[in-house]
Amino acid sequence: MVSNNQVPTLAQLRDSVADLPTIPESLSQILRLLEDPNSGARDLARVIRNDVPLTSKILRLSNSPLYQKRRTLTTVQDCVAVLGYRTVRQVALCVTVVSTLARECERRQSVLRYRDLWRHCVDAGAAAKWLAQQIGHPEPEDVFTCGLLHDLGKFVLTLQFPEQYAAVIAERRTRGCRLVDLERERFGYDHAQAGAVLGEAWNFPPLLVATCGGHHTSARNEHEASVVGLADYLANTLTPPASDLGFDQAMVDAAELYGAAGLSRESVESRLLELRGAIAALAPLRQLD
């Protein structure tokens, strides 16, 4: 961990990522499944069954009102059959990542209200998937995952530099400016770039790394990053988090976000009820315990 008196560079952050929890074996196996075109439902079920907390979360989500079914699901194989292989795989990836970082936040008594952060990430993920469907994206589940993990860098910064990041969060409230601007001023980079560093260290798929790193920049290299940027804005405005996570609607160029995502403001705002429903449907995923 970098000294409290030292201003960490992005290179130092890369070096100090080793201070974060070791990547869980279940996550390593899920990432390998992502890269294996021959993997299937049985492989995924085997990985999930070996992780008891993950199994519990998948069962709870599968048995929620979000999914219509005729019976209670009691096995991981049943869950894959109801939700689909890709959905369960993506949810398992995100839940494993965030649960690992949340436990470390708890252990280190982080000032970041990580439960509120995860609830926001779930809402952003739901919005990202809905937006992806509106533009006809071929893999909306991939965009969903990108939305769920877009703010990963906030976990990284609060765990690596707890006192400095607490000061940045407090200063944002008093100065009334964007969190990313203060992060860049204090560290030389923002939480989006920090999230990309973790993604690279944990061997995330390139698209996840790109969207983590690019959802707050105007020159986004991946269209998915633009969709996630708009989803982040919509989640913050439609379902504001209970705590201050660094969002101020007046400081966001909504027109730029809509344009970059390839959507008109009118087309989205005319269907806000549908979007709210998509966000509400994922409420069971908001629970980390």
Q: Can you give me a brief rundown of this structure?
A:
With 289 residues, the chain is mainly α.
Which secondary-structure class do the elements indicate?
A: mainly alpha
Query: What is the succession of H and E elements?
Result: HHHHHHHHHHHHHHHHH
The DSSP helix count reads 17
The average pLDDT is 87
Descriptive report:
It is a single chain. This protein folds into 2 domains: 21-107, no CATH class; 111-289, Hypothetical protein af1432. The protein is globular. The two termini are 27 Å apart. By secondary structure, the protein is mostly helical. Helix 7 crosses helix 14 and helix 12 runs antiparallel to helix 13. It contains 17 helices and no strands. 66% of the residues lie in helices and 0% in strands. The chain has helices at residues 10-16, 25-35, 41-49, 52-62, 76-83, 85-107, 114-134, 140-148, 152-160, 162-175, 179-187, 191-201, 206-214, 223-238, 254-261, 265-269, 272-281. The model has no long low-confidence stretch (mean pLDDT 87).
Write the layout of secondary structure elements.
Blueprint lengths: L9 H7 L8 H11 L5 H9 L2 H11 L13 H8 L1 H23 L6 H21 L5 H9 L3 H9 L1 H14 L3 H9 L3 H11 L4 H9 L8 H16 L15 H8 L3 H5 L2 H10 L8
